[in-house]
């Protein structure tokens, strides 16, 4: 839970430091501008609040790793929620309003996470898991989106916490069922492993040798 808080705080701090002009730059999420990604983070924060307030009475069905599904294909932008996110982001107009909304809802989600009992069972996406596992799953979400946020921002001053990068790599390796080559940095493993960047020829050779399936499209 501490790593959730550190990863979420680092991501919100990074958003707060983005100049208005950079909200119109591309993000690391294909087809999304930075403003679209920030709007998605607002929705994520709302999901955290909703899930923490949705107790479950049955046994867990997933944990922090099995919470994630591997999709057959990358997003196309045709998903109704993805399309809605882009329209909502544009409706904010002034980046200050979007920044303010994330700080407002995001701070509440962060406080709710700190106050929650990690042993409590909650329901989300038709699954049941402990609060600890739910927040653990979101370490991967925050870390990947932090990398997405700064992907095309050369002046960005903040990166995901090193512990978050390491834990996210470990989770991605569990999802993949195999380890990424030792020569890969945690950042490289996450970016290449999820299709956010194209591997070099040398990296591709190492991935084939390690029998790593990539990219992993997580949903």
From TrEMBL:
Signal peptide: none annotated. The keyword Isomerase applies. It comes from the Bacteria. Residues 5-149 form the Mycothiol-dependent maleylpyruvate isomerase metal-binding domain. Keywords: Isomerase. GO terms for molecular function: isomerase activity. Pfam families: MDMPI_N. This is Maleylpyruvate isomerase N-terminal domain-containing protein. It comes from Streptomyces virginiae.
């Amino acid at each position: 839970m501490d790593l959730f808080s550190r990863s979420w705080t680092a991501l919100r701090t990074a958003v707060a430091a983005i100049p208005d002009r950079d909200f119109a730059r591309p993000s690391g999420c294909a087809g999304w501008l930075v403003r679209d990604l920030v709007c998605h983070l607002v929705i994520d924060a709302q999901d955290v609040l909703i899930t923490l307030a949705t107790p479950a009475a049955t046994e867990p069905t997933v944990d922090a790793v099995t919470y994630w599904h591997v999709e057959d294909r990358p997003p196309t932008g045709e998903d109704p929620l993805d399309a809605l996110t882009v329209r909502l982001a544009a409706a904010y107009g002034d980046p200050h309003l979007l920044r303010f909304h994330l700080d407002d809802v995001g701070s509440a989600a962060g406080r709710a996470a700190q106050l929650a009992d990690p042993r409590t069972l909650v329901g989300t996406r038709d699954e049941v898991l402990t609060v600890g596992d739910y927040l653990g799953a979101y370490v991967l979400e925050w870390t990947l989106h932090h990398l997405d946020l700064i992907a095309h921002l050369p002046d960005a001053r903040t990166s995901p916490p090193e512990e978050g990068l390491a834990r996210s790599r470990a989770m991605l390796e569990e999802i993949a069922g195999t380890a990424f080559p030792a020569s890969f940095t945690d950042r490289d493993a996450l970016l290449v492993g999820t299709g956010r960047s194209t591997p070099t020829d040398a990296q591709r050779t190492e991935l084939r040798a390690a029998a790593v399936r990539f990219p992993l499209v997580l949903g």
